[in-house]
Design brief:
The chain has 15 helices and 16 strands. The relative contact order is 0.18. The protein is mostly helical.
Length: 439
């Protein structure tokens, strides 16, 4: 998922000559022995409880209780020094999933507060057409004037993740306001992004200046498939099934069979394949979304081509051209996908990746012992001009929780009674929240 934080600060990092931006070799094998090979269940449970504590702290940074708000995405490290405080819509969506995964009423209340924030942003957009912007100020929203978009772009993938989270909330609570919000997102995408060029699918949304994005992203169409498919599941409306099939048609056309991975999408003409690089997320998310054996090799591609051990940390990078550091969020994506394949070897590897993330939680740069940093070093490239930083990140922390609980955010989240009992302690400080109502 393209990060607002990366694009906003990449030029600053390059101008200030931050250490490690380029030229670092993958080293640190001598420190690998300090990483636990596998986490005992009790230690993992404590680690996840710590992760929830971080999310709660970030959520309550500017307000508490049922006050309508979104959640600041990053804190500490380089992004903290740059006073980057935006709440990225994608991160808010994954936080909702993580809180619902806890399986208790207090955590669900927190998920509803964030979901209400997304609905409030949607209802108070100047265009009032169902869109939600890429990022907002995380300050309390006690009136229409308080809704400030930090990024006015409308990326299709961000919209899809917001819609997915709202469907999850509808399924968990039965409150139709969440369903209506998700349907409004789906309709906006259909009106503004439906495309018939080449393999079809949907275009990338709108830029911050309101210009239509002509290229098509494999990742965005995976996300849209997930949204449309879940809408079809909860409504039974075949319109959503048809839209899901249209998105999937494009994704299938981007499958590079000889390489065993997906291409990134198309160029602006909508037909020419953009195969410059293959990011981690499209290969793990495609498996989570489709669970199709035809595409299962994409997960193995990530393992083979993106593995990193550098400066005492291990996991995977965002892309193959920069393997000088670990992208912790992506490592959690991959752990989640591997855990759900059913292959014992994959499950063993998933446990190892969770151990790697735990190590970064406790030993990583700028760690607080609770949250997960975005990357193991500042300046880790996304191979398209953006950079990741070792700042604590709500999105990476939420994905760690999902991976540890083997929760697939592309499917309706169902938590067993055993898992709910275990997670009740993990989300312990959430329990004080009363249940809010969508506005």
């Amino acid at each position: 998922m393209q990060r607002i934080a990366r694009a906003a600060t990449a030029a600053v990092v390059l101008a200030t000559g931050a250490a490690g931006v380029a030229g670092c070799e993958a080293t640190g094998a001598a420190n690998a022995a300090s990483r636990p090979a596998g986490l005992p269940a009790s230690r993992l449970a404590t680690s996840i409880a710590d992760a929830y504590s971080f999310l709660n702290q970030m959520m309550d940074k500017y307000a508490a209780g049922t006050t309508t708000r979104l959640v600041q995405s990053f804190t500490g490290g380089f992004l903290g020094s740059q006073r980057f405080t935006a709440s990225e819509t994608y991160d808010d969506a994954v936080l909702i999933d993580a809180y619902l995964a806890a399986g208790n009423s207090g955590a669900r209340s927190r998920a509803e507060v964030i979901g209400n924030g997304l609905l409030y942003a949607q209802a108070n957009d100047p265009l009032k057409d169902g869109r939600i912007r890429a990022a907002y100020a995380p300050t309390p929203w006690r009136g229409h004037a308080a809704v400030v978009a930090d990024s006015t772009a409308v990326p299709t993938g961000d919209l899809a993740w917001a819609g997915l989270a709202l469907v999850q909330l509808y399924a968990a609570t039965g409150k139709r306001a969440y369903l209506h919000g998700a349907e409004a997102i789906g309709d906006w995408v259909q009106v503004n992004c439906f495309d018939t060029r080449g393999a079809g699918g949907y275009t990338g949304g709108e830029t911050a200046s309101g210009q239509e994005v002509a290229w098509k992203s494999t990742e965005h169409n995976i996300d849209l498939y997930g949204l449309f498919h879940l809408l079809a599941v909860v409504t039974g409306d075949p319109v959503w099934s048809a839209r899901a099939a249209w998105a999937r048609r494009f994704v299938a056309a981007m499958w590079d069979q000889p390489q065993g991975r997906f291409d990134i999408g198309t160029l602006n003409d909508g037909t020419t394949t953009n195969d410059g690089y293959s990011p981690e997320d499209i290969n793990s998310w495609s498996y989570l979304a489709f669970r199709d054996p035809v595409f299962e090799g994409s997960v193995d591609w990530d393992v083979r081509n993106l593995a990193v051990t550098a400066h005492g940390f291990s996991g995977v990078s965002f892309c193959r051209a920069d393997r000088t550091g670990v992208w912790l969020e992506g490592t959690a994506h991959l752990a989640d996908a591997l855990a759900l394949t059913g292959n014992p070897r994959d499950r063993t590897l998933a446990v190892r990746y969770l151990s790697d993330i735990y190590h970064a939680q406790k030993r990583g740069p700028n760690n607080d012992g609770l949250g997960i940093i975005s990357a193991s070093r500042d300046g880790l490239s996304d191979c398209s001009g953006g950079l990741y930083y070792s700042s604590l990140h709500t999105g990476a922390t939420a994905w760690y929780i999902l991976a540890a609980d083997q929760i697939n955010p592309f499917a309706l989240i169902q938590v067993s009674s055993t898992a709910a009992a275990s997670n009740s302690q993990n989300a312990r400080s959430a329990a004080s929240l009363p249940v809010p109502s969508p506005r």
